[in-house]
From TrEMBL:
Tagged with keyword Signal: yes
Source domain of life: Eukaryota
Gene3D superfamilies for this protein: SGNH hydrolase (3.40.50.1110)
Organism: Panicum virgatum (Blackwell switchgrass)
Descriptive protein name: GDSL esterase/lipase
């Protein structure tokens, strides 16, 4: 096989967590950088998290990670905050970690597949569990397998995580009585991290037979069905994230044609795809709010938060909006899909990650996650609707 053929094959097999570089049918104010804890004691003592690599705190390891981003257990992942890899796709904390800090939880959420959480330890019972897994999709894995679009590397979907949640409730005894289970579930905060970008990535090579609109319809339907499934189990307080500006990731910038750009110099077609996905998701959440008036469903607007940063990166402390901190290849983006972060060829990162938005080409730096978390948790209703403070107040009052 020639060099070009091998490169093309690897590119088609690449399953990044938050990227689908394809042409689709269409493309604020400053907020505090840190997610400071609320002044009053938090009314939530338990959080359950779901999603993909933007939320995964350790369910994925190097042996199970997405193709070409399968080095998450190696340095320099985790170097900034933990000073070692914790199998988070960043140099430090994620938005869900800043959520735990904002709620003053005694620890970060343990990953479900770790021995700590799976063994029903006190930590898992005290603070909750993180079910998010890198590479996860909204649509079930069988769909991709039937269409020959799966490598079986990351076969988990959002519904897989719902099954894990049920198993966790049974393991902790919360599933023995329906009333007990519903009370436990009703007292918790549910964080539904961004999910769906992988669905577009899996089908990028089949756009002629599986159009992006079909993926959008199916993916959003699965996410809304998942959210409703949580409410059927007793969930009353939920925050659902939309997709970020996936067209502003270093990998997208590297692979897309130079003329495919929007007014923030990102890949227009990919950002349009995320925008269309989010609009459809918002419509679905609106219907769920009417159907379940006894629950609070907040929408964390990742797209708008990300856009605010890209419009004025210096305002938020960033000098490198596109260049990868942990990457290789130099150039404007410092990204090489054949030598990604943590691989033998890339075992060091930039000297100042806090100046960078992009960490490894498809994931953010801790600094960027911290800014986004500040927008969600301290930005009023501009980036989280209803606002995070309103959600806390309603829980403290014991009403949805």
């Amino acid at each position: 096989m020639g060099m070009a053929t091998r490169a093309n094959t690897r590119l088609l097999l690449l399953l990044p967590l938050v990227l689908a570089v394809l042409v689709v049918e269409g493309s604020t104010a400053a907020a505090p950088a840190a997610a400071a804890a609320p002044a009053a004691a938090s009314p939530f003592r338990t959080v359950y998290a779901f999603g993909d690599s933007f939320t995964d705190t350790g369910n994925t390891r190097s042996t199970t990670g997405p193709y070409s981003f399968g080095y998450v257990s190696s340095p320099p992942y985790g170097a900034t905050f933990f000073h070692r890899s914790t199998n988070r796709y960043s140099d430090g904390r994620l938005v869900v970690d800043f959520l735990a800090e904002a709620l003053k939880l005694p620890s970060f959420l343990p990953p479900y597949l770790s021995s700590a959480a799976a063994s029903n330890t006190s930590s898992a019972q005290q603070v909750g569990v993180n079910f998010a897994v890198a590479g996860a999709t909204a649509i079930e894995h069988d769909f991709f397998a039937r269409n020959n679009l799966s490598l079986d590397i990351t076969p988990q979907s959002i519904m897989t995580q719902l099954g894990w949640f049920d198993a966790h409730l049974r393991a902790t005894g919360a599933g023995s009585k329906d009333d007990d289970r519903r009370k436990k579930v009703g007292d918790a905060l549910f964080w539904v991290g961004e999910i769906g970008a992988n669905d577009y990535a899996y089908t990028v090579v089949a756009r002629d037979t599986i159009p992006p609109k079909l993926i959008r319809d199916m993916a959003v339907q699965r996410v809304t069905a998942f959210v409703e499934g949580l409410m059927e189990r007793g969930a009353k307080y939920l925050i659902v994230q939309g997709l970020p500006l996936t067209g502003c990731l270093s990998m997208a910038m590297t692979l897309a044609p130079a003329e495919d750009r929007d007014n923030v110099s990102c890949v227009a077609s990919v950002n349009q795809q995320s925008h269309a996905h989010n609009r459809r998701l918002l419509a679905g959440l609106h219907q769920l709010r009417h159907k379940h008036p006894d629950a609070v469903i907040a929408y964390a607007d990742y797209y708008t938060a990300h856009l605010a940063v890209m419009r004025s990166p210096a305002k938020y402390g960033f000098t490198e909006p596109f260049r990868t901190c942990c990457g290789s290849g130099g150039g404007a983006y410092n990204f090489d899909l054949f030598a990604t972060c943590g691989s033998p060829a890339v075992n060091t990162s930039c000297a100042q990650p806090a100046k960078y938005i992009n960490w490894d080409g498809v994931h953010m730096t801790e600094a960027m996650y911290k800014v986004v978390a500040g927008m969600f948790f301290q930005g009023g209703g501009a980036y989280c609707r209803p606002s995070f403070s309103d959600l806390l107040a309603r829980k403290a009052q014991g009403k949805p």
